[in-house]
Amino acid sequence: MSTQKSIAIDGPSGAGKSTLAKALAKELGYLYVDTGAIYRTVGLQACRTGTNPEEEGAVAALLPGLEIGMQYGPDGLQHMYLNGEDVTDAIRQHEISRYASCVSALPAVRAFLLERQRAMARENDVVMDGRDIGTVVLPQAGVKIFLTAAPEARARRRWQELNQRGEEADYDGILQDVLERDQRDTTRAASPLRQAEDAVLADTTELDLEQSLALLMHIVKERLQA
Ligand code: DC
């Protein structure tokens, strides 16, 4: 039996999972694991090799040759490595989001990554965020949070983020992307995004970052004491 503590945070894209999970991990002194980054790394390899990300056989053939590494830099950031190359920035490209979403729907990819994620939680106290952490990866997690926000609020935050970076951003297009990704992530057969029965729902539609973090800390303290 593992004596490590685990906090599972699941929810749709743009709900603030990574920012909040990272802040929560820092407050608690736990390791933050962004599982979406791992799926993105597989998606990046599919993209680079010209592999159709929807073709399970072709993507599965890539997996044995994939060396995915995760390391924490002095900047405190989770760096991702693909066959030794630092791909932390490359996996954030817009195109790679689509590849990641497609490869993450493939049972062969999910099976390949499952044990790897569980091993991290066996060896460390973790705050792990993703889509199926509370339901599939760490069903025994001591605290489970389903973090969400209205699609319009998530699209607005993404729009603001791009705007601040000086990138061209079209709100309607972003909202469309958000709705399409939600549809793909919640309706796929393999580990669809859904709230675990014992997860606490946290809706951040009306909350700013500070208020959202306070809400999460409150949930975690209550659950850890229960
Ligand atoms: O959280 P993110 O947007 O970086 O995740 C990228 C993709 O990976 C997203 O489409 C959902 C998928 N994903 C998943 O299926 N399961 C996880 N545990 C994490 C991410």
State the gist of this model.
With 226 residues, the protein is α/β, with parallel strands linked by helices.
List strands and helices in order, with pairings.
Blueprint: E1 6-10, H1 17-28, E2 31-34, H2 35-48, H3 56-62, E3 68-72, E4 78-82, E5 85-86, H4 94-103, H5 107-123, E6 126-130, H6 133-137, E7 143-148, H7 151-164, H8 171-187, E8 200-203, H9 209-225
Helix pairs in contact: 1-9, 2-4, 7-8
The structure holds 2'-deoxycytidine-5'-monophosphate.
Protein described:
There is one protein chain. The protein is α/β, with parallel strands linked by helices. It has a single domain (6-225), classed as Rossmann fold, CATH 3.40.50.300. It has 9 helices and 8 strands. The strands form 2 sheets. The chain has a 5-stranded parallel beta sheet. Strands 3-4-5 form a 3-stranded antiparallel beta sheet. Helix 1 crosses helix 9 (209-225), helix 2 packs across helix 4 and helix 7 crosses helix 8. The longest helix is centred in the middle third of the chain and has 17 residues, at 107-123. The chain is globular, with a radius of gyration of 17 Å. The model has no long low-confidence stretch (mean pLDDT 93). The protein binds 2'-deoxycytidine-5'-monophosphate.
Could you tell me the strand content as a percent range?
A: 15-25%
What is the assigned CATH homologous superfamily?
Answer: P-loop containing nucleotide triphosphate hydrolases
Q: In DSSP terms, counting alpha (H) and pi (I) runs of 4 or more, how many helices?
A: 9
State mean pLDDT (0 to 100 scale): 93
Main sheet overview: 5 strands, parallel
